[in-house]
Amino acid sequence: MMKSVFKLMGAILLSLTVISVYATPVDIYEFKSAENQKRALELAHSLRCPQCQNQNLIDSNSPVAKDLRLEVYQMVDAGKDYDEVIEFMTSRYGDFVLYKPRMEPKTYILWLGPIGFLVIGLLIGFFFVRKQRISQVEDQEISVEEQKELDRLLNRDEQ
Amino acid sequence: MNKRLVLFIPLILFLVMGALLYKGLFMDPKILDSALEGKPVPAFQLEQLEDSGVIITNESLKGKVSLLNVWATWCPSCKYEHPYLMRFARQKILPIYGINYRDERALAIRELNRQGDPYTKNIFDHDGRLGLDLGVYGAPESFLVDHNGIIRFRYAGPIDQRVWNETLLPMIKQLQAVAKQEGAS
């Protein structure tokens, strides 16, 4: 019984993976080489579709994405390098199409912000811990006379 | 006293972040900056929609402040925009050039015959190549081009009376004033 359930689940999982493999739009485009194909697909995956935001050029079915996808394929096949393709895309559609923003003054806060917050957090933590330690040390510095006085005050009511 | 104030820093940071994120809720992520503002209209050489024998190029647009309007018969928002364009065209403020984007010639001509033609000229961009070079990601989109053929402003979405009055018309007036000045000197 248990075994057949597992088998069924396995079959469902397998069919899901098969479906997801073929769920990308089918383009008829023949690359000059397998290496070009790999590079072009990687590039198209890293570029955002301006029409259906939050989908990359491969995922999207929109006509714009299809055009841009083919453009990327053709540019890669024509021997254009990564920077040339990125330049082509951003000069038309802006930095928006990049999933990974470029490092430039406008995006410093984006890239360096998290590091800044980490540093601030560490500094606060450091000062907090140090302060705690200092107050603990102060607690122990009570002299014998002071202890006697304290005991006397505490016991005064009982007498 | 100062030490007490330091304790408020996290609260202040939290409030600033909260305010920014709250503002973000009301921003439209569909509005993208155009990468082409300040750049010349990309070079093109395309047939006129009405007459395949006439070739229109980017040079044809120079000389006057003009509006480039990307439209298609398959685009519902263009139908909403159309009567407004008709009205602006009648006022003869500036030439409106249509870019018929990824469309069928016969369908587009029929549409213009039926609904009226607000365009000075129509550029037939069947393959969407000019649209791609302009960074068009949907129709309608409009580009305000100055007398030197430089794109000054891009508006994505349908133009209606409000957009025209509040955004486009003031810019058109300003660009036309500049054009007049440069033409005179």
UniProtKB/TrEMBL annotation, chain A:
- Every copy of the CcmH/CycL/Ccl2/NrfF N-terminal domain together lies at 14-154
One Pfam family named in its UniProt record: CcmH
Q: Does the keyword Transmembrane helix apply?
A: yes
Q: Check the record and name the Gene3D superfamilies matching this protein.
A: Cytochrome C biogenesis protein (1.10.8.640)
**Which InterPro entries would you find in this protein's record?**
C-type_cytochrome_biogenesis, CcmH/CycL/Ccl2/NrfF_N, CcmH/CycL/NrfF/Ccl2_sf, For-dep_Cytc_NO2Rdtase_NrfF
GO MF term (any one): metal ion binding
Any one cellular-component term (Gene Ontology): plasma membrane
> What is the residue range of the signal peptide feature?
1-23
- UniProtKB keywords: Heme, Iron, Membrane, Metal-binding, Signal, Transmembrane, Transmembrane helix
Q: Which residues cross the membrane?
A: 108-129
One GO BP on record is: cytochrome complex assembly
Q: What does this protein do?
A: Possible subunit of a heme lyase.
Could you identify this protein by its name? Answer: Formate-dependent nitrite reductase complex subunit
What is the protein's species of origin?
Shewanella benthica KT99
Automatic annotation (TrEMBL), chain B:
What Gene Ontology terms describe what this protein does at the molecular function level? Answer: disulfide oxidoreductase activity
Which Gene Ontology biological process is one annotated for this entry?
Answer: cytochrome complex assembly
Keywords carried by this UniProt record: Cytochrome c-type biogenesis, Disulfide bond, Redox-active center
Q: What family, per the record? A: Belongs to the thioredoxin family. DsbE subfamily.
Q: What is this protein's name?
A: Thiol:disulfide interchange protein DsbE
Among InterPro entries, the record links this protein to:
Periplasmic_diS_OxRdtase_DsbE (IPR004799), Redoxin (IPR013740), Thioredoxin-like_sf (IPR036249), Thioredoxin_CS (IPR017937), Thioredoxin_domain (IPR013766), Thioredoxin_ResA/DsbE_sf (IPR050553)
Thioredoxin domain: which residues? 35-177
Location comes to: Cell inner membrane
Organism, as annotated: Shewanella benthica KT99
Chief subcellular location: membrane
Q: Name one GO cellular component term.
A: plasma membrane
